[in-house]
Design goal:
The protein contains four helices and six strands. It is of the alpha+beta class. The protein is globular and about 40 Å long.
């Protein structure tokens, strides 16, 4: 299973953050990356500055023949097409696409697999649990449910339509 996290908290040329995520999912398909499952959209507070606009997040399970480094290159291309500008880490953005797991691989480098911070992020784990409730972290072996239980309470809610 290959898992991609999607997030946005600024509008793009495609519209609102939710419309941007929908268009980004379609853009994956146009590049030969098949979306097999996708979570609903979730809203979460921006971090580290909660006064920034809230994020809309989702997780998708995809199928592709691209190796991780090539998949990451394609994700960065899509981010740029949607107006993502280089900037400080955790800054507001039009689109963020991350590989969070690639068939359970454990690898250093670019990309680091699994994503090094995914196990502590409710905005990734909650939508992940929706589409892959039996998923286990490749390094710790812990289930997505166990990882969520370890987190401090966070406000992750289904995004209104």
């Amino acid at each position: 299973m290959i898992l991609i996290a999607l997030g946005a908290n600024l509008p793009s040329a495609k519209g609102t953050p939710k419309e941007t995520l929908r268009a980004a999912l379609a853009s994956l398909g146009a590049r030969g990356i098949t979306v097999e499952r996708q979570s609903g959209f979730y809203q979460s507070a921006a971090w580290p500055n909660p006064t920034d606009p809230s994020f809309i997040n989702a997780v998708a399970s995809v199928r592709t023949k691209l190796p991780p480094s090539e998949l990451l290159r394609v994700l960065h291309e899509i981010e740029a097409e949607f107006g993502r500008q280089p900037g400080p880490r955790n800054a507001p953005r039009t689109l963020d696409l991350d590989i969070i797991d690639y068939e359970g691989r454990i690898a250093p480098g670019d990309p680091e697999l699994p994503h090094p911070r995914m196990g502590t992020r409710a905005f990734v784990l909650v939508p992940l649990q929706e589409i892959a409730p039996d998923w286990r972290h490749p390094i710790s072996g812990r289930t997505v449910t166990e990882l969520i239980a370890d987190l401090a309470p966070a406000t992750i809610t289904p995004a209104a339509d």
